Amino acid sequence: MENFSIFYSFTPSDRLRAVIKYHLPRHLIDANYKHHAKVPMPERAVILVVDDSEEDILLIRKAFEKASIPNPLYAVKSGDEAISYLKGEGRFSSREEYPLPDLLLLDLKMPGTDGFDVLRWIRHQPGLSSLRVLVLTGSDHIRDVNQAYQLGANSFMVKPDDFQNFVHLSKNLQTHWLGQSKAPETSRAPKARNAQERRSR
Question: What's the whole-model pTM score?
Fold first, then answer.
C-alpha cells in the first residue's frame, strides 16, 4: 500500500476533498485511514490546539511535521469554540469527525473566553476533568504560571521565539506526553433529551 498517511489526520469530509483534488482512488484513502486507525496509541493520540492566532496554529503544524509527529492535530481559534468542541455541540457534534483529544495545547491570552476560563471549565466536567492540558502561551508572567497550575494545568510552556526551538519543543512533547505519559479516559456528557423525546418514552 502506498503511503498516504497524511490523510489519517483528515476528517471524513477532508478525505473526500482529497479524493477529488488529488484524483486518488477513494478505496485507497479509506483503506489507509483504517490501517492507520490500528496504529498503537501514542501515534493515534488526538491533539487539540486552542489558539486565536492563525499564524501560531500554522507554526505548530509545521513544527509537528518537521519533528515527524504523525498524530492527528485539530485546532480551534477561541475559548468558546474549544468548549463547544469538547462538549460536541454545533458543528462539532460528530465524534467521528471531531474526536475527543488525548492532549490539549491551550493558549491563555484570547479575547472573550480565555484559556483560564477554558481550563476552569474543563476541570469542572466529570468526563473531562482528567484531560491533560498543556498551556502553550506567549506569556511568562509568574502570575499566569501560578494561576494556570492552580486551575489544574498539567504543564506550562512559553511559545518559543524561533522555529527550530518550536521543533525542539515538539519533539520533547512527543517524547514525554505522547510517549511516556499515559492518557486517562475522558468522555463527553450525554446529550439531554428534549421535551418531546421525554414525553414519548
Answer: 0.73
